[in-house]
Specification:
This protein is of the alpha+beta class. Helices cover 34% and strands 29% of the residues. The protein has eight helices and eleven strands. It is globular.
């Protein structure tokens, strides 16, 4: 487990989590025509071809005070050339350490911040105490992947997952998708990404009417149990304020912050 006083361990964890996020953000796009991924030593840019900043991303910055300003402007120009919005995600491993200030100086705005959290999967419960009426399925079909996309609540999500279906349903895909069904209706989702020697959780969503029934906990736990059964021992995630309590009860603890920056609206 992470020792918050061990700087080397925290740095290694931050690097692993960053690598995992790159896989989450770019793998399907890199496998799909009309989508672009520029993975350079100093920065990763993902252009989905859609007008949605959920899928157009800048991340894994390894810049210096000297190289940051020109590369930031080049990244902004990259997305502007296609007329697409984007989000720049800044995590604990990004450099320079004051990268957010450089982004603001370049005209971006701080949009959101979440906790980076980690858990030792060996400490998870043996079984998933899911509600009796909840059926959790790992996505195996086109229809189930569209049910997953529907949980995001954005038409561009349906388009993105429709275009990347052939990649994401491959047996060797590093992203595993889950849908929770209640009385046959999709009500919750989860994604687990394998990368960086850890597993990362994303898109933990429960429809508002079905919250406070233990569904979110079950949807968080099932992918992690599957990963543990395959030998993984470390899980990471980005926690919005509303989910911190659930994740803490499952053994997650914070190791940093992840902040999203975007161009101003209009």
């Amino acid at each position: 487990m992470v020792n918050p006083t061990n700087k080397n361990m925290l740095q290694n964890l931050a690097e692993a989590a960053d690598t995992n996020f790159v896989v989450h953000a770019s793998w399907a796009a890199a496998c799909t025509s009309k989508m672009r991924v520029l993975a350079e030593p100093g920065l990763v840019l993902v252009d989905s071809g859609l007008p949605c900043d959920t899928f157009n991303i800048a991340c894994r910055a390894r810049l210096t005070p000297h190289t940051a300003p020109p590369q930031i402007h080049q990244a902004i120009d990259f997305f502007d050339a296609g007329g697409r919005p984007f989000a720049w995600w800044v995590g604990p491993a990004d450099q320079p350490t004051d990268l957010g200030d450089y982004l603001v100086d370049a005209g971006l705005q701080r949009a959101d911040s979440e906790l980076a959290m980690v858990a030792d999967l060996t400490g998870l419960p043996t079984n998933n105490p899911a509600p009796a009426d909840l059926e959790i399925r790992r996505v195996r079909t086109d229809a189930e992947l569209q049910d997953f996309a529907g949980m995001i609540g954005d038409p561009d999500a349906l388009r993105f997952y429709a275009r990347t279906t052939s990649a994401l349903l491959r047996p060797d895909a590093p992203q595993w998708f889950y849908v929770g069904y209640w009385a046959g209706q999709p009500v919750a989702s989860a994604e687990l990404t394998v990368g960086g020697g850890v597993v990362g959780l994303y898109s933990i969503i429960t429809l508002a009417h079905y919250r406070r029934r233990g569904i979110g906990t079950a949807m968080t736990l099932q992918p992690l149990l599957d990963a543990r059964n395959l030998g993984f021992d470390t899980g990471v995630l980005q926690a919005a304020a509303a989910g911190v309590g659930v994740y803490t009860r499952l053994g997650f603890q914070p190791f940093g912050d992840i902040t999203e920056y975007k161009p101003p609206m209009g």
